[in-house]
């Protein structure tokens, strides 16, 4: 199944006077790049979180935001640093006296200074935290994957449509190519006839010129390979594994064959068809950049 690398997921759990919120968003990236922002107290759980995410997400830049709120006053302790508070107070008094300004030191002012009052959370049993956190984490991952699958389904349909259009144009080139040779043969005869009498025309020489033209301008092999690449794209889209990188390689090969056909062609219709093919290939390439 084709999955986009763009998505969003959210999970929430409330239990035992705590709430756990997990939000994650992903965008396209060459590899699997996971960034987790969470309370420092839970940093030891990061590897478990990564493993859970990577079970279902294999590629993309994924940003995860974890918020834990507690409603139990026993879980939080406020610590007052008396020594630091005294030092701040004495320092403010000196400043007031030195510059002869009003001394309006207040409790709220001192309390706002760094580390005068610090919040200390009760040490958590990380195994118990993981049991709780794992539920909204999986919920968020599932929501993210579901959104990526929906976006991937749209890409799947659109790429299939574009491949069908390319196939039609390749078929038209295949149909037109022999006519170009016949037209060239006819033009050679006409030019020679203008210069020489019928008895002087060397048919073997003309046949050789036409053969050289065919050898230089034949796009039969390129058409076969281009059709093969189109089929490879369609088959790859139906694989159940991540296919983004494989598709990117196939599309590069498609573009190479299209360029070769263009360089060999002198017929205006074929040249225009190739330009349209290259335009479709470029659109597919852009879409593939967002496929996992």
Helix-strand makeup class: alpha+beta
Here the CATH topology of the largest domain equals Butyryl-CoA Dehydrogenase, subunit A, domain 3
User: Could you tell me the mean pLDDT?
Assistant: 86
Strand order of the largest sheet: 1-2-4-3
Pfam family, one: YicC-like_N
Protein name: YicC family protein
Keywords: Endonuclease, Hydrolase, Nuclease
Family: Belongs to the YicC/YloC family.
Short description:
With 292 residues, the protein is α+β, with helices and mostly antiparallel strands. It has 8 helices and 6 strands, in the order E-E-E-H-E-E-H-H-E-H-H-H-H-H. The chain folds into 3 domains: 7-71 and 125-148, Ribosomal Protein S5, domain 2 (2-Layer Sandwich); 82-115; 152-288, Butyryl-CoA Dehydrogenase, subunit A, domain 3, CATH 1.20.140.
What is the strand and helix layout of this fold?
Blueprint: E1 7-15, E2 18-27, E3 32-37, H1 46-54, E4 60-70, E5 76-80, H2 82-99, H3 107-111, E6 117-121, H4 126-195, H5 203-217, H6 220-237, H7 244-264, H8 268-288
Parallel strand pairs: 3-4
Antiparallel strand pairs: 1-2, 2-4, 5-6
Helix pairs in contact: 4-5, 4-6, 4-8, 6-7, 7-8
């Amino acid at each position: 199944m084709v999955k986009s690398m763009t998505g969003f997921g959210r999970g929430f759990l409330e239990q035992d006077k705590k709430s756990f919120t997990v939000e994650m968003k992903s965008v396209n990236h060459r590899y699997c790049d996971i960034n987790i922002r969470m309370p420092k107290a839970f940093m030891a759980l990061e590897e478990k979180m990564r493993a859970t995410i990577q079970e279902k997400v294999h590629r993309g830049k994924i940003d995860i935001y974890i918020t834990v709120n507690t409603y139990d006053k026993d879980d939080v302790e406020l610590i007052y640093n008396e020594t630091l508070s005294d030092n701040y107070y004495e320092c403010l008094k000196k400043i007031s006296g030195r510059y002869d300004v009003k001394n309006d030191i207040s409790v709220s002012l001192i309390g706002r200074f760094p580390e005068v009052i610090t919040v200390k959370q009760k040490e958590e049993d990380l195994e118990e935290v993981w049991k709780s956190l794992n539920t909204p984490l999986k919920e968020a991952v599932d929501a993210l994957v579901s959104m990526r699958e929906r976006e991937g389904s749209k890409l799947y349909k659109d790429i299939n449509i574009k491949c069908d259009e390319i196939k039609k144009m390749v078929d038209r080139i295949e149909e037109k190519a022999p006519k170009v040779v016949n037209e060239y043969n006819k033009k050679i005869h006409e030019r020679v006839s203008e210069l020489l009498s019928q008895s002087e025309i060397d048919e073997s020489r003309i046949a050789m010129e036409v053969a050289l033209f065919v050898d230089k301008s034949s796009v039969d092999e390129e058409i076969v390979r281009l059709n093969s690449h189109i089929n490879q794209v369609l088959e790859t889209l139906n694989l159940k594994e991540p296919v983004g990188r494989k598709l990117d390689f196939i599309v590069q090969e498609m573009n190479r064959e299209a360029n070769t056909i263009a360089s060999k062609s002198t017929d205006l219709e074929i040249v225009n068809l190739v330009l349209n093919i290259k335009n479709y290939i470029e659109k597919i390439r852009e879409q593939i950049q967002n496929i996992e």
